[in-house]
Amino acid sequence: MASRSPTLSREARDSAAEADANPEPGPEVFCKLCLSEQPSAATRELLSCNCVFCTACLQQYVQLAIMEGGGAPITCPDMACQKTGMLQDSEITSLAREDQAELYQRLKFERGVKLDPSKAWCPVLECQAVCNLQPSTEGQPTAASCPTCHTVFCSGCRGSWQDGHTCPERQPMMSPSLSHESRVHSDSDSDVPIKQCPMCGIYIERNQGCAQMLCKSCKHTFCWYCLQNLDGDIFLRHYDKGPCRNKLGHSRASVMWNRTQVVGILVGVSIIVLVTSPLLLLASPCILCCVCKPCSGKKKKKKRKKDLNQPDSSTS
């Protein structure tokens, strides 16, 4: 009895090769960055928020974020993302070139050191080691020692620490061991340059500008002085009374102009709704007729087919 050959026939091998060379296209996915339909094989889903974009757009977005972000967390490119997801390091490494991925990690580390009040760079240019700062209970600068070159410097001005040293900048340092209530109270009394977002806890540095802050990480809006939530305060009434009165950082005219713009947008939207609603009511019969007309046409065709089939059955 002849045994079956384990090898495939030539026709089976050719069909398998054609199937591998021409795979069946999967369902297309709409990319919100390039505003076009892309095959699922050319798209990628973010791990943190499950948003889907085409790989080419994500690569360009990541490269631009690395060059202009300064080491900040790369968030989801969709501004309407409900989960406000952030790209993980593994995703950034796979989407960016090797040199850009290394640049992002270096910028991310430098940014973390800069925004962390408990860390600082060694002032010696030949050293540039990361030093741990231990501010005093009063929040005043203290002596810091470099673990590499053992240089003792001021934690506030980074100058050489000597007996009787007085910091010229007198920058108040925020102790990470303080509770949230005490931190809010101390921050409302003095305008420290670095504070934490009351929602996600990330460190934020304010150089200049208004007191209405927007966290880039969690998109939370708050007051810089008292850390109060300003997400729903579109008219900025928080700065009309209380301890933060007239501390917005803008003139009264600019605040009024902002409120006028908001009111104008709301009034414009309401006017459009009022104008279009009667037109929609008047046009609703026409719309219903247009919708129902194809259905009536299909019914007529079905009746004609039945009428044609009845004589045939009778003759048979």
Automatic annotation (TrEMBL):
This is E3 ubiquitin-protein ligase RNF144B. E3 ubiquitin-protein ligase which accepts ubiquitin from E2 ubiquitin-conjugating enzymes UBE2L3 and UBE2L6 in the form of a thioester and then directly transfers the ubiquitin to targeted substrates such as LCMT2, thereby promoting their degradation. Induces apoptosis via a p53/TP53-dependent but caspase-independent mechanism. Plays a crucial role in maintaining the genomic stability by controlling the degradation of multiple proteins involved in mitotic progression and DNA damage. Regulates epithelial homeostasis by mediating degradation of CDKN1A and isoform 2 of TP63. Residues 1-24 are annotated as: Disordered. PROSITE patterns: TRIAD, ZF_RING_1, ZF_RING_2. GO terms for cellular component: mitochondrial membrane. Keywords: Apoptosis, Cytoplasm, Membrane, Metal-binding, Mitochondrion, Repeat, Transferase, Transmembrane, Transmembrane helix, Ubl conjugation, Ubl conjugation pathway, Zinc, Zinc-finger. It is a single-pass membrane protein. Pfam families: IBR (PF01485), IBR_1 (PF22191). The chain crosses the membrane at residues 262-283. Its EC number is 2.3.2.31. Pathway: Protein modification; protein ubiquitination. One of its GO terms (biological process) is protein ubiquitination. It catalyses: [E2 ubiquitin-conjugating enzyme]-S-ubiquitinyl-L-cysteine + [acceptor protein]-L-lysine = [E2 ubiquitin-conjugating enzyme]-L-cysteine + [acceptor protein]-N(6)-ubiquitinyl-L-lysine. PANTHER family: RBR FAMILY RING FINGER AND IBR DOMAIN-CONTAINING.
